[in-house]
Fold:
Amino acid sequence: MPDQVRHDVERKWNRALARYQRADAALAAAADSEDEAFYDRVGERHEEALQSLLRTPATDIAALALKLELALDERSLEYFGDLAGMQLLKADARRLS
Structure:
């Protein structure tokens, strides 16, 4: 993979991963909230960040492993219907193997 392409992939991955990590921390912090509307908004941002991460090309085998772990997590059952996300997971596996 040319250096510029690798750099672009890494930059996109790092941005998507950071966004997901922030959303995951916010969801954990909001877990005890009694404000259901607030928790729902935080949950929607978490879902969007997870879907974005799953659609972002993995940079290496460790990133692919993280994507697979998140995709197969019990919280992600609804993502199995996300054809685009699952196709990119398979493409990542083929590209990185």
Observations:
- The chain has a mean pLDDT of 85.
- The longest helix spans residues 3-30.
